[in-house]
Amino acid sequence: MTPIIALDFKDKTTTLDFLSQFPKEEHLFVKVGMELFYAEGPAIITEIQQARPVSIFLDLKLHDIPNTVEKAACQLGKLGVAMTTVHAAGGKDMMIAAKRGLLAGAKAAGHPAPKMLAITQLTSTDQTMLTNQLSIEIPISQAVQHLAAIAQASNADGVVASALETPLIRSVTRPDFLVVTPGIRPHGAAVGDQKRVVTPGRAKRLGSSAIVVGRPITQADDPVAAYQSIKEAWETAHD
Fold first, then answer.
1. CA-to-CA distance for 79 and 58, rounded, in angstroms?
2. Which H, E and C letters describe 118-186, residue by residue?
3. What is the per-residue pLDDT across 181-222, written as a single tens digit (0 to 9) for each?
4. Gap between the Cα atoms of 182 and 200, Å rounded
5. Which residues are catalytic?
């Protein structure tokens, strides 16, 4: 997969203006998260799809009781997105229900079903937070590996995790299991609120299936050049 651009913008106008900078013929992979989706609703998905060739990763991190998540996932399955997310912490029954909802929604709308990714531990989480705030005593890498194994057993197509945990995830999952990694920062870029970060090239070498990059592209003086540089580093696995 090409690097996934996180469209962390406040509204449709800002989003479409940003996307208009890229060559129209280039097929982009973009992430729509909570801020943009909550501001514009499901219509933003159609707006982006109509604006240019694009695949969409809809990252809403569903986490609720299984029945509620299944019904929500059914609605998301109708949108024609490529991937979407649930929280692995919701447990096996919830993830199975989510996958069932995605399949039903996609079938009803005549779309391919989105890949379902399970969130393991956010890349803003570190060991201190895991232990002191969440009362999880095991190492964060072990916690991520455990959740990835549960996600695979729950019909998930992959997980979202730091690239640092990718080798451990690979050791307990099938070869085609996706590991999508945020927390990507080129050398010299500000880390911001991310804790477990790597460069694009290192993520590739560690075995990531795809990387998600936001601010290093969206806040760059030249977003297209920043994207192309990150894409080259990812495809050639250099830092």
1. 9
2. EECCCCCCCHHHHHHCCCCCCCHHHHHHHHHHHHHHCCCCEEECCHHHHHHHHCCCCCCCEEEECCECC
3. 998 977 655 445 445 578 999 999 999 999 999 999 999 999
4. 10
5. 61
